[in-house]
Specification:
CATH architecture: 3-Layer(aba) Sandwich
CATH topology: Dihydrofolate Reductase, subunit A
CATH superfamily: Dihydrofolate Reductase, subunit A
Largest sheet: 8 strands, mixed
Structural class: alpha/beta
Shape: globular
Strand order of the largest sheet: 5-4-3-6-1-7-10-9
Radius of gyration: 16 Å
Number of strands: 10
Distance between the termini: 25 Å
Strand content: 35-45%
CATH class: Alpha Beta
Length: 177
């Protein structure tokens, strides 16, 4: 069965973006030319995200195709135009991701956001995390980990310094009762 993973940056106080969905705080972070993204992305064949995350990512890419040649699953309640390698879905996040796990392919990356991650955490379905922590305090915004009915013990696999940012790679060890 395919693994479900999360890879993404947060502020020191746990936010994916500020209250206006702005990521400038992240883009202003000095990485000293270092990145783990390229290596990570090679193990992914399906990208899962909400409509807002998809639209922001598309805007940032400009004319370049977002995750070209790879499957994108976008959770949205509305109807959308057909796009290459993109499937719009709505419904129970857990059931939909379980169906994708049964299909052939590499890992499934939950790109964002917290409202997609939360039910997967509650269903004990997220296998690994690569979380980049940026030394900035936002005070408010969109949290990575929304309050929910989940408790995990995670195993630290590796930490990597990427300029000003620290990445921690974690693997689910066990659910805590």
């Amino acid at each position: 069965m395919r693994q479900v993973v999360f890879y993404g940056a947060i502020s020191l106080d746990g936010f994916l973006s500020d209250e206006n969905d702005d990521l400038q705080w992240l883009f202003d972070t000095n990485l000293n030319g270092q990145s783990t993204y390229e290596t990570f992305e090679k193990q992914i064949s399906t990208f899962v995200m909400g409509r807002k995350t998809f639209e922001v990512a598309q805007k940032l890419m400009g004319e370049e195709m977002l995750y070209a040649g790879k499957e994108k699953v976008v959770f949205s309640r509305g109807k959308h135009l057909s796009q290459t390698d993109t499937t719009y879905v709505s419904g129970n996040v857990v059931d939909i991701i379980k169906d994708y796990q049964k299909q052939a392919g590499n890992d499934i990356w939950v790109v964002g956001g917290g409202s997609i991650l939360k039910p997967l955490l509650e269903a004990n379905m997220v296998d690994e995390f690569w979380i980049q922590i940026v030394p900035v305090l936002l005070g408010q915004g969109k949290r990575l980990f929304e309050p929910g009915r989940y408790r995990y013990r995670l195993q630290v696999i590796e930490t990597t310094q990427l300029g000003e940012m620290t990445e921690i790679h974690l693997k689910r060890a066990s659910a805590i009762k």
